[in-house]
Write a structure and sequence with these properties.
This protein is an alpha/beta fold. The chain is built from 19 helices and 8 strands. The protein has an 8-stranded parallel beta barrel, surrounded by 7 helices.
Length: 485
Amino acid sequence: MNKERKIFWLAVLLALLLPDTLWSQERYSVGVCDWMVLKRQKLGVFALAKELGCDGVELDMGGLGDREAFDNQLRDDAQAALFKHTADSLGIRIGAVAMSGFYAQDLTKKDTYMSLLSDCFDTMDKMGGVEVAFLPLGGCGNDWAVNKERRAQVVKRLHDIGEAAKARGKVVGIDTPLDAKGNLRLLREVKSDGIRIFYKMQTIVEHGWDLCADLQRLGAKNICAIHASNTDSLWLCNDPAIDLPAVKQTLDGMGWKGWLFVERSRDVKMVRNVKMNYGSNVHTLKTLFNTYPEPAVALDSLGRDPSYVATIIGRARKATDALGITWTPRGQNVQNIVANRYFKLNDIYAERDTLKKTNKALAEATCDSRLYRSHFDFDADLSIHLSPADIVKVKDVMTYNVVDVTYKAYCDMIPTLTAEEKEQIMAWLVEAREYAIDAESSNKKHETFNKYKGRINNYLSKRGYDIQKEREEWEKRVKASGGTL
């Protein structure tokens, strides 16, 4: 057997033996739409996509409105080169280029449509030979599908667009209000291999159609990319309208591969929180369809009770929620660092309690030594992933935000505090927080702060303040305004 045949049969053997998850890593890629993450043609979209754990982005051509051309800054070769370099340096691919302006603008009323398409194709080439363009037909309304004259106009222009795309080695994916049967009929009318369907799950769900059946009927060869999200309401992981495991099974069975872009599925309670919304949805898609990046920081959960681990993870997640990074690779690392700190403290205090049975003095000394030696490791570990300001936010969450609440209370109680006195109060509260972080329980944390409150009260008394009187006057002011302490 010659060398070439050996290589061929080895590849066949690997295809049979390797688990599906390894092949799915190549089959599916997950990205976000730059206009939906508030980064339309902004350089920062690539760093954001990296933080969210994306494989890439769907880059928009810019606004259109009543203009004759897209507001496309990437016509400038230097700017386009900067975008491409930034994406490459971060390992973020550009999976598609979108003409989202046509969500609102009518394709049949834009006589410059071919120059608009040419601009899009040029941008795709500058971005490294992107193959798929997104063209929504929302601006045409829904009547074109049943109005013969309007439909003929849409079909004619789509044919021209498709042939131009094919000549440039591109595919234009259209977003229509149709189901698979309607889309197949439309594609037959268009008669161009350069036009395919940019599938939108939201459309299918809103019409109450069977998503998996619709995908199968449309067929893999007719789908160039997928907007894998629903309308804004719930995250994908909480949305009962989209059975993602069934969708994956369907796409796997069809042999489809390509890009899954998150367009919406934002939680309406936090619709502007980009990192939480898209981080969660990317995490869901990457976990199911691809491989979500493993955290660099391992969770020290081995040998621990699963229910206890779940409780600690929930506690740690409060910190990453406060930072808005929970559903990002960075957030997963920070979450594990915080959880591991809780595990560490539990281990230190458990060891102390065991030693107390034989030598109380040794138990306390050993505990203090281990707390001191490990205290600074926590800051060092967090500093790899967070700014100093964000580290402070994590510590505040872990200590119930007592620093901020107490400081504001003193400032409200004694409006005449000087800048020097306020600075001293804050310094002691920050010091208290460092000790409270290492306390073994919430009660012990509050005890730590109470000791420092006593120090602050003594300090203020020596400077001539009558704390009791100040408190009574404060209570009167609060009650007069209809509030309570």
